[in-house]
Amino acid sequence: MTLVRIRDEDSFERALRKFTKACEKGGLMTDIKKHQYFEKPSDRRKRKLNAARRKARKLSKLLS
Questions:
Q1: Global pTM?
Q2: Where do the domains of the chain lie?
């Protein structure tokens, strides 16, 4: 759950900006985008495997 503390002097635009930033930081937007359409389990495994490969490749470049 996203919680945003708003002071009395904050305008609506500022409060909305704080809320949007909190949602992005919490990963809510990426979760919503992921669930916009059905992803087959095999496609999910392929996506995660490719992401792990990219991460390992990037890590190996940094270490060498």
A1: 0.54
A2: 12-63
